[in-house]
Amino acid sequence: MFEKLLAKLQAAPDYILPFLVILTILVFVHEMGHYLLARYNGVRVEVFSIGFGPELFGWNDGHGTRWKFSLIPLGGYVKMYGEGDEPEVAEETVKRFKARGLPVPGPEESFHNKTVGQRAAIVAAGPAANYIFAVLVFAALFATIGQRVTLPAIGEVIPGSVAEKAGFKAGDTILSIDGESIGRFEQIINFVQLRPGVAMDFIVDRAGNKIPINVTPALEETKDPFGNVHRVGRIGLKPDSMGRMVQHGPVSALAHAGREVLGMTWGSLTAIGQMIVGTRNSDELGGPVMIAKYSGDIWKLDTAAVLWFMASLSISLGLINLFPVPMLDGGHLMFYAFEAVRGRPLGARLQEYGFRIGLALVLGLLVFATWNDLRKVFQGVIT
Prior knowledge:
There is one protein chain. The protein is an alpha+beta fold and 383 residues long. It folds into 3 domains: 1-25 and 115-146 and 250-383, no CATH class; 42-113, no CATH class; 148-246, PDZ domain (Pdz3 Domain), CATH 2.30.42. It is built from 11 helices and 12 strands. The chain is elongated, with a radius of gyration of 24 Å. It starts with a helix and ends in a 6-residue tail after the last helix. Residues 4-9 have low confidence and may be disordered.
């Protein structure tokens, strides 16, 4: 037992550096979205921090922003002038600017004094930056290395599988699943893997005839190349060909990248919804430890794999931040929506209670996800 634990701990440095590099890039992208929209709307940005806690090192720019790296590298933040202040700017804030030898901003540079639309745009710019980053990375990969394209034609139906029992035949071409058109076999895989135990309506082309087939994917446990176990849906179909890498032009690459990002977002929302209603095991929820493990595993592969992982993680970061939970960007947007409807902000006490509840939810989810991670990483060592 202790030998296994020691081996796991000794391997930790191989995962920490890749995790920190990838996380730092994604946090920078997210916070840069906030920063650029704040500057565009005339808001003075006081601090741009990678990490939390005490400052390790940093510098001041000519616009009065302190750029810094902080001790705890698990996130970051942008502090805007007037953000969280009362309508009258706090005396401590004024002193802070004077102590740094910077001119005190006027009321027009305060985040608090911007319209609700401007504040919402600044907040939404962080998740938007993560999505834009993902689209650009995928587009670059599709334009250079290419996108794997496998025609949705069935080459083999595995004997005894649910697909065989449902009536699929080799030579069928899958046209749609639950009303959505299918152009690549990869789409079929994504659909099926996310829906174990959920009945699905297929339309296949069989010798020119459109045949409806209803099938319910079976739940199977599989291992990825790094030994991580995944519970996914399987029906038992193999494609007619191995597929090929297709390089796209700049415009086509952006379009395909946008569809890839939308597909991943919908897949994530589907999985989360299944966890909420109980059709998917919440043990699959991962946290920072699992992200670090994947970062280290994928870091050992080629640059394309690292970029793909980084773009996928950027989508997750952007999506999570849009959830309407106080403490997250989506929570702020929810409050701004109420303000837009009411014509005035929610009361300070109500917002404070909201942020306390949001903090409890975020911390609780983090603890739960981290415990899941530790049980997976130290499987056989801890119970």
